[in-house]
Specification:
The complex is a heteropentamer. By secondary structure, chain A is an all-alpha fold. Chain A has helices at 2-21, 40-52, 57-65, 67-87, 107-129, 138-155, 163-187, 210-234. The chains are: A mainly alpha, B mainly alpha, C mainly alpha, D mainly alpha, E mainly alpha.
């Protein structure tokens, strides 16, 4: 009975949503002509290359135009880690060690992971270093790096993450982001102002001023945060969960 | 691509499928009793939202908004970059929420020894 | 100076008259009751002897200062009421202070005595006294209502609250109140039954089971003062009724006739009545007398 | 500095100092309180000036403080009684805890009452009103433990009253664009009453609560009875008079000063309401209050509660008088207001003395204190005589004026009702005298002593005042006449010791007093001389029950079911008490509230469902909600 | 470096990232750094508020891109007032929670970071000029709030946190849907730009977007059927966090609703809608509060009720009403803050937070009880405390619009409030002492200081309301001046 009611309610919601989206035809050009930009998106498409020197417009938006959002996003991730730490915090008894839920895995998986790990990390770093040139960027790259660590965490029961190092990476990356922003405030008058580093030439590695720097920092930070989250979630003592 | 006379059908089916995903997610949240399933439902709804985001950014014949050396200077139609940027943020936030949700599920399970939401009602009225 | 002397003399004369008449009425009542009951009864002047006897007796014990004061309260009250009622409507000696008080004042000075009495009775510590007092007070609340209704009817009808004025108006118009507003009179008459505490409203004293009620601890001079006070009080009330309903009196003889007739009504009524319990008497007053009072008042308003 | 500020500063400052100084010495706190009130009184009457108005602006509103002749009349009550009550409290409260707290609220109460009287605008009126309310609440609950329900009840009713008033005030502001009371009176007199009835009714409700008007009185008996008596004398004597003060403004200034030709009804719910109708309602409510208060009073076994109910009844007279609104009735009402403060203040103080010395005021537990506490008895006796309205004490004057006012203006049935109440009042008057001071002396009270002198002085002063005003009411008529000129009765005629009505009938109080005292003294001399010798004082055990001396263990105490026959006679009137009605309402509300909160089921999914349901409702009705 | 609104965001974020590093040096830094940051932000508030009152709204551009292309922060008299209020409350609560014993038993590092971020997120919501950025800040508030709610292990915090998260996730879904529709129909995310262009959206679509937003943000603003999370979260979160929720987080949600109605969308009926929803919220919440046995829960319901009244105030929509609404918000922040902070010590050792466990605590904890009583007096609107003035303003505004029924309902609710608050006070002072003196936790000196600050403020504003009314007036003007807002933000484009 409850099912039917809920379905009916959701169908009503769905009906109204579809009805609303009827105003927005799929695939229509809503950007408008270059002379008459109808959305901010059009403005970005028309001006990014010229004004920021970044080939990937999305990166420019994420890191610069809407860099403040990204700062918030990074903070959300940071908070997620912190929050997880606080929610799952457990006062450790004397001599007690973190123990992972995972079982000792097969030799095949272990070897495979060991071989793949450096390549995955490399790929991840590549992705976030080239975030301003190619698809991808700090978040994607960070996620890839975290996947590498996830492989190791799953494969090796005793794989130890340096918590200290994670904290350092996390914090330094965050500090870099904010400091660059503040530096912009001091030199250029606005927070995250992309003015104190030359823009460079389009489509080269060193282009876009602060954008790649921030994105790399973001990449490190995301990698560290995601790894941290995975580690925390995997480190629940199995004995605590009763069947 | 030109949808021509099928414009409406395409619109409804593209958006409709994304919306359906959202609704399925919400259904799971509202009906399923298992906490994990509820979290899955939330993720599903999130995924639907992300799809919608990308869909509204699409425009006919558009390419990725990257001025790689091959497209610089040429008159290429590009899709709206803003929704893509937004969806990235949304994904990250969705991840964070899911992570927190899962950790709370773990806590709840430890505390109440059950993962059924209708049995976790010590706070009421 | 002369005025003051006249006033004082008049006051004393009034008091003596009231005392004598009141005591005599008391004696006559005993006689009447006895004759109705087919007894010989005491002499009508028996009450004088009683008072004199009591006055000459020595009081042996005293429970406290309030008991000592109680007779004074009741005496004061009786005399004050008397002073503020015009005895004869144009008498030189008997008008006293009647211009300086009015009906409402009289209504409020009347309980002064019983209250003092009650206090004295309370001081003695005799529970019977206190029971008698509560009965008396309760009954008072009962009969005051029709009484007040009829008084209000009077005041409304004559547009004055002064007794003197009421008498004058009645004399001038020649129509007594009893005729112009019989309902009010009847209500007041019923109230009077309660006021004089003859049967069926004699539960206050209730000699049979209460050992004579509030006064049970009083003896000797105290009792004498109390007896004479209540005689004065009785007379004063009768005069008030006569003034209000019978157009007052020109001279003492007329006054005596009117008051005596009036006085005999409750006495005779009491002869043929059993005794009511307190709440019965209260509810009695709140039935017919109350209705009569209301009718009288409406009569007066119209 | 301005008089008003200084007075309030002294009182509020005194409040804080006596709160703080309690740490030093328990006596000091009370002494500071007394000094503060006394100095405020002295300062105030040295500098009093009715034409002096202070204006200032706060929070965007204009405030005006000043003194009119009406409020001047009430300052006598507040400051006079306040000073005496603080003096009384020094000894009365001596062995209690939290004296700082007590005096803090006490002085706050006095200060806020003065503030009310100073206020010429509604908003500061309301502010002081509320300060008065909560400070008195804090004292009501001072005695602890069993008082909390009483306190809540008091606070609920005060809240209802105060917020009714506030509602009216804001509506007035919306109409008049000014908070000044005078402006509102002007406004009403210009535009008439139509459309403003709700404001006036709400104001009446607001003031009615404090002056314990039926059916808003249920808080009063227990609140009065359970506060420390030093405060109750002020509570019942002065604080309730603030309601009277407000009512006199509303009923007299507002409801008489408008164009009499206009009686436009509001239509709908307020069909048929006009100024006269409101006043008739209030008159009858007042009269019913008086009757019910009296009937409940004589049922009580606790002297404090008895007096509390009696206060309600007395306030009923006052309100009826005000609502009748003829010159005589208003004069009587105001006179009674002052007198009530005096004699009820004295009575509560006396009861406090009894409570302090004998440990309780439950009349079934103590009796026969007259020999132990003669002065307290005298005070009680005189106050009771005044309360009962028996000449020659002051209460009579007020009652007389009230009755004459009613009769001469044609309120015949009201008169009967009021008269019934005041006759029945004799019953409880006697009850209280007998119950505590007379009757059998009990073993438990063998060690009771007379109250300390500093408690007796204020009581005696008040008792003497009732006597003075009984013979020379003109002393009070002067300020009352002034006060009445403020609320629209010009040229009120009064004489020093003669009261007269419009029909020309009069009572000469000097003759009355002369007669009574002469006769009384003559009789006393006679009896005392005659009986001086030979009588001996005996205990109350030495009585002649059927000619026998009672044995030691025989129970001679008569206290329980004192007025049982009378209660039986009026039993139907006791059947429906407002208390029960309110309790029923409260219980059903409770059940409803408990039901409502089950909306919050505790299940997260349900909450999520609510969101969806809400969303769906909004979406479906979006056209009708947002058109 | 010129002080600008971005300091509100950047400095705490920097601090949040720095804290883990400093924690390795000395644990004490974890506690102190947030305090320093909040102190600095208070200074910023003072400077900026002065600036605003002299030169008008400050619109700060970020990353050098003028709106609507970049994100901007708007520090108007209105948003600035709220931001300053939040900063101040944050500071006070920090003082209170410094070395709060219960928190120190738990991972303190995390607490202070989360707490700082809660405040930052709320301030970000208030200051930002971009709707998506607002969403991001909302999530910052959300995630820190979920974590803080379930901070204590020994309670049902996780349950409350999960409910909160569930509804919060619903909220984000709905808000994102709204943003999608909004962006696809007018192609901008800047709020001023939206305000300028919202008339271009077809009405039906506009209303749908509005509904999605209102329901989404209504969850944060504790609107009636959407507030199931609130009582649980308030009652299970640590005491200071409860104060922060009611003083800071909810205000942010309310701010968004106000912005939506006043600035972003011009939808007929939205004001009436707000009044009705506010009334329903208040009535249900106060009625539920009436019968609570759990002190914190009672305060939570009361808090919801107050927010309902704030909604009503903003629904009336006149300048006076807005002043009233802002005053209510201010009062609610300081008074409810005080109540939460003091109640924390009152029910310190009772895991069920029962009101009945308060018996006679007035003797054991005189100062805390006194402050609680003060707060209770103020919140029910008794003069001469600050709560009175806000209620008076509200009633006057309602009377001005002839909303008699509204006045009546608000006052009836006030009576209900009296009942349940005074019940607690009675318990505190006029009941026999049940607890032994060892069983109560004496407040630390800094907790006393912070509570006293709030208490003094309540009395000060109550006696002299002009302290704040001028700011409130400016804020109301700023909120009503929609054209001015648009012009200020989009100054570069229009020129």
């Amino acid at each position: 009975m409850k099912n039917i009611i809920v379905i009916a309610l959701l169908l009503v919601v769905g009906f109204y949503l579809v009805d609303s989206f009827n105003y927005i035809k799929f695939g229509d050009n809503r950007l408008g002509a270059p002379s008459d930009e109808k959305t901010v998106g059009a403005y970005y498409l028309n001006n990014t290359v010229e004004k920021t020197g970044v080939a990937n417009v999305i990166t420019a938006i994420i890191v610069n135009y809407r860099g403040f959002d990204t700062l918030g996003e990074v903070t959300v991730l940071f908070l997620a880690t912190t929050g997880l730490g606080s929610i799952l915090y457990r006062r450790r008894k004397e001599g007690e060690h973190e123990e992972r839920v995972t079982k000792e895995s097969s030799y095949l998986l272990q070897t495979g992971s060991k071989i793949l790990f450096p390549f995955v990390i490399l790929l991840g770093i590549y992705v976030f270093i080239h975030g301003h040139l190619t698809p991808g960027g700090g978040f994607q790259g960070g996620a890839i790096v975290a996947t590498g660590f996830l492989l190791m965490l799953i494969a090796y029961k005793n794989f130890k993450l340096g918590h200290n190092q994670l904290t350092w990476v996390e914090s330094l990356a965050g500090i870099t982001f904010v400091s660059i922003g503040m530096w912009g405030l001091i030199t250029g008058g606005t927070f995250l102002e992309n003015s104190f580093i030359p823009k460079g030439t389009l489509n080269s590695l060193f282009s876009g001023g602060i954008i790649p720097i921030i994105y790399i920092a973001v990449g490190f930070k995301v990698a560290a945060e995601l790894t941290g989250v995975l580690d925390i979630l995997l480190s629940i003592k199995p004995s605590k969960i009763k069947k | 691509m030109d949808f021509g006379q099928y414009q409406n059908i395409v619109t409804i089916s593209v958006y409709g499928s994304a919306i359906a995903l959202i609704l399925i997610g919400l259904y799971a949240v509202l009906i399923k009793k298992n906490l994990i399933k509820i979290v899955i439902g939330l993720s599903l709804a999130d995924a639907g939202i992300h799809l919608l985001f990308v869909a509204i950014g699409y425009l006919k014949g558009g390419t990725a908004p990257i001025f790689s050396p091959s497209v610089v200077g040429e008159n290429v139609t590009m899709v709206d970059p803003v929704p893509q940027a937004l969806v990235l943020t949304a994904i990250v936030i969705g991840f964070a929420v899911t992570a927190v949700a899962l950790s709370l599920v773990i806590r709840l399970y430890k505390h109440h020894n059950t993962a059924r939401i209708d049995q976790i009602k010590s706070l009421k009225w | 100076m002369e005025d003051i002397i006249y006033k004082i003399l008049g006051a004393i004369l009034t008091i003596i008259t009231a005392f004598v008449v009141g005591i005599t009425y008391g004696g006559l009542t005993r006689k009447v009751i006895a004759r109705v009951q087919n007894r010989v009864g005491p002499k009508f002047y028996q009450n004088f002897f009683d008072v004199l006897k009591l006055l000459s007796k020595r009081t042996a014990i005293n429970h406290g200062v309030m008991q000592h004061f109680a007779p004074m309260f009741i005496f004061t009250s009786a005399v004050t009421v008397l002073m503020f009622i015009p005895i004869l409507h144009d008498g030189l000696f008997f008008s006293n202070f009647s211009f300086h008080g009015d009906l409402i004042f009289l209504l409020y000075i009347m309980p002064f005595g019983p209250l003092g009495m009650a206090l004295g009775a309370g001081q003695t510590g005799n529970p019977n006294s206190a029971i008698g007092v509560t009965r008396g007070l309760s009954q008072m609340v009962g009969f005051e209502i029709p009484f007040v209704l009829s008084l209000v009817a009077l005041m409304v009808q004559f547009e004055t609250t002064s007794v003197t004025e009421i008498v004058n108006i009645q004399v001038e118009s020649g129509v007594w109140m009893i005729f112009s507003n019989p309902f009010a009179f009847l209500a007041a008459l019923f109230a009077m039954f309660g006021m004089f505490r003859y049967a069926p409203f004699d539960i206050v004293g209730a000699p049979a089971e209460l050992a004579s009620g509030p006064a049970s601890e009083f003896g000797g001079k105290y009792l004498a003062i109390m007896m004479s006070s209540s005689s004065i009080f009785t007379f004063a009330k009768l005069v008030l009724y006569v003034n209000l309903f019978f157009g007052g009196a020109e001279n003492l003889v007329e006054l005596l006739i009117k008051t005596f007739i009036l006085y005999m009504v409750p006495v005779v009524y009491g002869l043929v009545s059993p005794r009511y319990r307190t709440e019965q008497s209260i509810t009695y007053f709140w039935k017919w007398p109350l209705a009569l009072g209301v009718i009288g008042m409406i009569w007066a308003i119209i | 500095m301005n008089t008003y500020f200084v007075v309030l500063l002294i009182l509020f400052g005194g409040a804080i100092i006596s709160f703080a100084i309690n740490k030093v010495s328990y006596l000091l706190s009370g002494i500071v309180a007394f000094i503060a009130t006394a100095s405020a009184t002295v300062f105030f009457y040295l500098n009093v000036d009715t034409d002096n108005f202070v204006q200032f602006s706060l929070a965007g509103f204009d405030f005006q403080w000043g003194l009119n002749s009406l409020s001047l009349l009430f300052t006598y009550i507040v400051l006079g009684l306040g000073t005496l009550a603080t003096l009384y409290s020094i000894q009365y409260m001596r062995f209690k805890n939290n004296l700082g707290y007590f005096y803090f609220n006490f002085l706050l109460g006095i200060g806020s009452m003065m503030g009310i009287l100073f206020s010429q605008d509604f908003i500061s009126f309301f502010i002081f009103w509320e300060i008065m309310t909560w400070s008195s609440y804090l004292i009501v609950v001072y005695n602890g433990n069993k008082t909390h329900k009483i306190g809540i009840k008091y606070m609920i009713f005060s809240g209802i009253g105060a917020y009714a008033m506030l509602m009216s005030i804001v509506m007035i502001y919306a109409d008049v664009k000014s908070f000044l009371i005078a402006d509102y009176i002007d406004y009403i007199s210009q535009v008439g009453l139509s459309g403003h009835y709700l404001q006036i009714i709400l104001l009446i409700v607001g003031f009615g609560v404090k002056s314990a008007l039926m059916p808003l009185h249920v808080w009063a008996p227990k609140a009065y009875a359970n506060s420390p008596m030093g405060y109750t004398s002020l509570f019942s004597g002065a604080l309730s008079k603030m309601g009277v003060y407000g009512l006199s403004i509303v009923l007299l200034s507002l409801l008489t000063n408008f164009n009499t030709g206009e009686n436009v009804s509001l239509g709908g719910l307020f069909e048929g309401i006009n100024a006269e109708f409101i006043r008739i309602i209030v008159q009858w409510l007042g009269a019913i209050t008086a009757v019910m208060g009296t009937l409940y009073a004589l049922k009580q076994n606790d002297a404090k509660k008895l007096l509390a109910y009696s206060s309600i009844a007395q306030l009923g007279y006052i309100i009826t008088g005000l609502a009748i609104g003829t010159e005589l009735a208003v004069m009587g009402a105001l006179f009674l207001a002052v007198l009530h403060a005096i004699f009820k203040g004295a009575l509560f103080m006396a009861m406090g003395a009894v409570e302090r010395q004998a440990g309780t005021t439950d009349m079934t537990k103590i009796s026969g204190l007259v020999r132990k506490m003669p002065f307290t008895f005298i005070v009680t006796l005189m106050s009771i005589i005044a309360l009962a309205g028996i000449p020659p004490l002051g209460g009579f004057v007020g009652k007389w004026l009230l009755y004459e006012g009613m009769i001469t203006s044609g309120h015949y049935f009201l008169v009967v009702l009021i008269f019934f109440s005041s006759t029945a009042a004799f019953l409880y008057c006697y009850r209280i005298l007998f119950g505590i001071f007379l009757g059998q002396e009990e073993k438990e009270t063998i060690n009771v002593r007379e109250a300390p002198i500093s408690m007796l002085i204020p009581m005696l002063l008040l008792a003497i005042l009732t006597m003075v005003f009984g013979t020379y009411p003109g002393l009070l008529f002067e300020p009352i006449a002034n006060a009445m000129s403020y609320i629209g009765y010009n040229d009120v005629v009064w004489e020093m010791s003669t009261i007269s009505n419009v029909w020309g009938d009069k009572v000469s109080l000097d003759y009355v007093s002369l007669t009574i005292f002469t006769v009384f003294i003559v009789a006393m001399i006679f009896l005392t001389i005659k009986n001086y010798k030979g009588t001996r004082y005996v205990t109350t055990k030495d009585i002649s029950t059927s000619g026998e001396m009672p044995t030691e263990n025989e129970n001679l105490t008569f206290q329980l079911n004192f007025f049982q026959p009378f209660e039986r006679a009026v039993a139907p009137l006791y059947k429906r008490s407002m208390d029960k009605i309110y309790n029923t309402i409260g219980e059903s509300l409770d059940a409803l509230f408990n039901f409502v909160r089950t909306i919050y089921t505790g299940n997260g999914q349900t909450y999520a469902l609510y969101v969806i349901v809400f969303l769906v409702i909004m979406l479906i009705f979006k056209d009708s909600i947002f058109n | 470096m010129v002080i600008s609104p971005v300091h509100y965001i950047a400095v705490p974020l920097l601090a949040a990232f720095v804290i883990p590093l400093f924690a390795k040096l000395n644990r004490e830094f974890v506690r102190i750094i947030p305090g320093i940051v909040l102190l600095y932000l208070s200074y910023v508030s003072i400077v900026l508020m002065n600036q605003v009152s002299s030169t008008g709204t400050i619109s700060e551009v970020l990353a050098g891109w003028a709106p609507p292309f970049g994100i901007n922060l708007v520090f108007s008299a209105f948003s600035g007032f709220l931001a300053s209020l939040m900063t101040f409350m944050g500071l006070v609560i920090w003082i209170y929670s410094y070395r709060f014993k219960k928190i120190d038993d738990e991972p303190a590092l995390k607490f202070y970071v989360l707490f700082l971020m809660l405040i930052t997120g709320a301030i970000g919501i208030v200051l930002t000029g971009d709707i998506f950025n607002l969403f991001v800040f909302l999530e910052i508030v959300g995630i820190s709030a979920y974590s803080l709610t379930s901070f204590y292990r020994n309670r049902d915090g996780a349950e409350a946190g999960f409910k909160y998260l569930l509804l919060g996730a619903f909220a984000s879904t709905l808000i994102l849907l709204g943003i999608i529709l909004l962006y696809s129909s007018i192609g901008t995310l800047n709020m001023a730009d939206i305000a300028q262009k919202s008339h271009l959206i077809p009405t039906s679509l506009k209303v749908s977007i509005f509904i999605l937003f209102v329901v989404g943000f209504g969850i944060e603003a504790e609107m009636f059927p959407l507030n199931g999370w609130a009582p649980d979260a308030y009652s299970q979160a640590p005491g200071p966090v409860g104060a922060a929720f009611s003083g800071i987080a909810v205000k942010a949600g309310m701010y968004v609703i106000i912005r939506l109605i006043y600035t972003l969308f011009d939808i007929e009926g939205s004001f009436q809608f707000l009044i009705v929803m506010g009334l329903i919220t208040t009535i249900i919440a106060e009625v539920s509060a009436m019968k609570q046995t759990n002190l914190k829960r009672m305060l939570a319901y009361s808090s919801i009720g107050q927010m309902g009244i704030v909604m009503v105030a903003f629904g009336i929509g006149t300048r006076e009403a807005i002043i009233a609404g802002l005053f209510l918000m201010l009062n609610h922040a300081i008074i409810k803050g005080l109540l939460f902070l003091s109640s924390s010590y009152l029910v310190y050792n009772d895991d069920n937070k029962l009101i009945s466990s308060l018996s006679g605590l007035g003797k054991r904890l005189p100062l805390v009880s006194f402050l609680f009583a003060l707060g209770a007096f103020a919140i029910v609107g008794l003069p001469p405390f600050s709560g009175f003035w806000s209620r008076l303003y509200l009633l006057l505004a309602a009377a001005d619009k002839e909303l008699i029924y509204l006045i009546a309902i608000i006052l009836i609710i006030a009576v209900i409030e009296i009942v349940y608050y005074f019940r607690v006070i009675n318990k505190l002072y006029f009941k026999d002492i049940k607890v032994k003196s060892d069983d109560v936790q004496k407040p630390s000196i800094n907790a006393v200081i912070s509570m006293s600050i709030l208490g003094i403020l309540i009395i000060a504003i109550g006696i002299y309301p002009d302290l704040v009314t001028s700011y409130l007036g400016n804020a109301a003007d700023a909120l009503l001046d929609k054209a001015g807002y648009i012009e200020n933000v989009l100054v570069d484009i229009n020129n």
